[in-house]
Amino acid sequence: MKIEVWSDYVCPFCYIGKRELENALNKTGFKDQVEVVFKGYQLSPESKDTSDESMYEVVAKKYGTTVEQAKIQSQGIIARAKELGLDYDYDHLKPANTFKAHRLAKYAATKGLGAEMSERLLRAYFVEAKEIGLTDTLVELAAEVGIERKDAEEILANGSFADDVLRDIQEAAQIGVRGVPFFVLNGKYAISGAQPNEVFEKAIQQVAEEENLRPTLKMMGQDGQGICTDDHCDF
Q1: For a tag site, which of 3, 77, 111, 194 has the least CB within 10 Å?
Q2: 222: pLDDT strictly greater than 70
Q3: Which residues pair with 3 in a beta bridge?
Q4: CA neighbours within 13 Å on the CB side: how many for 17?
């Protein structure tokens, strides 16, 4: 089974959706039979690498509201993330351009470290409030997942893998993706947004039945800058 995931590293629901998918794969027992491929997407390609604005200020400006109201509106996202073991540090988040991060993740994938790099980038941004638009930050994160610093520095300096990221973005447009996260299972079943765990489980089991796949692990018990709405971020 192949699951393609379009996401952006500054999309709060992308990290939540990633966890929901991972939990569903564990619960259904198909974790070891699924290839998860992360696809690049940019919610705010016009963003600078770093900014003095807080995320609350950015949200307030976008919606024409106050910073205090933006803080209140963010509580639901923070609470849902916490239910999945993700402690979002919204108070220190700053907007960032993610194009370099996506390029680095593409390189990491060629080294068999794509999943590790994507997880590290999401955690760095939402949990640790790191500035993932900055080259120095990206080099540090790459080194943490096993990529040589000099290789990361070279990739980020020479523009490598830019075409790969742009192809992902173009493909998303062609199949009608208007918000992330966006999941495609075996090229024919789509899940839009960070849906509840049960939605992912049902879709995985349906594809597994069609492909005559059987669980390889014991199933776990049930207790075991774009615009963000209820479960996704879009333009």
Answers
A1: 111
A2: no
A3: 36, 185
A4: 30
User: What average pLDDT does this structure show over 134-163?
Assistant: 98
pLDDT tens column, 186-201:
999 999 999 999 999 9
Measured CA to CA, the distance from residue 143 to residue 132 in angstroms comes to 14
**CA-based Rg of the chain, rounded to a whole angstrom?**
18
Kindly report the three-state secondary structure assignment for every residue of 77-89.
Answer: HHHHHHHCCCCCC
Sequential DSSP letters for 25-89: HHHHT-GGG-EEEEEE--S-TT--S--SS-HHHHHHHHHT--HHHHHHHHHHHHHHHHHTT----
Query: Could you give the C-alpha distances from 112 to 20, 74, 106, in angstroms and in order?
Result: 23, 35, 10
